[in-house]
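User: Predict the structure for this protein chain, please.
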Amino acid sequence: MAERWLYGVDGGLQGSLPPWETDPWTDGISPPSRDLGTLTEIVLIDGQVVDSRRRPVSGSGYECAALELEYSHPQTQPRVERVIVREDPSEAMVHWLQRVVGGEGPLAALHDDPLPASEPLEVDRLPASARDLACTLDEHLELVGTPTAVGGELLTAYRRLLVEASHAGILHLWREVAPERITAAIIHCVVKANALTGSGAPFRVGDFTRGLGVPHVPTARSSSLARAVGGSQWPHGRSPVHAPDVYVLGDADLLVSRFRNELLTYRDLALAAAKAAAESAEEATG
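Assistant: Here is the predicted structure, written as structure tokens:
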């Protein structure tokens, strides 16, 4: 007499299987998606093994048996311990400042001298394919007034960022975008990087983009530009608590004197705090 037997998940003999012709897989029943392991079927004739095969438990009709075996032998969940590494606040601020101005050297050499007023666009520095669009954007920048005493510096920063955008390939990506919208994105990116707009800032974005006819703040496009030029805004997660909410462009040459003066204050306070913390730790271990 022919018999079939099921070896379960543990490999133990579980009992007689139903006849082959009642196999759920052959009755058009689709197997469940969950992986419940495999089963082994063995055919015996007068106690002699004549055939065997392995197939997934899912869809075989023995899902409940497999689940019962799983529950009777629950898997041990791995223990996960989370270790939170906290950077000293003064060190975090120093590292953030280095990101903002372009590195340790630029931070040490940082000054608050004004940028050249209304520095002309350096067309020769632009990729040939971007020159026509860049010149069109420069014409739009010329028409936009600036409401601050650093207006001439801002125009210089706009043009410098325009050059950086062209080298980063952004102008190529935006070649089908209306020039006034690209201009608005460049302006917003610069004023956001210089803490001239945003929470607690003295101006609104519309104060700088007035005359372009752009109805909405180009936040998404300008933040994309900031990431393309400056990289990750803060690679350690959240920026330091006392850091201003600005775009990080990674280049002091794109920052006006007003904001660089603020960064100097942050730098001196952070360095003094870091020095005091180091001296205190040295005294504690000495």
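The radius of gyration is 34 Å.
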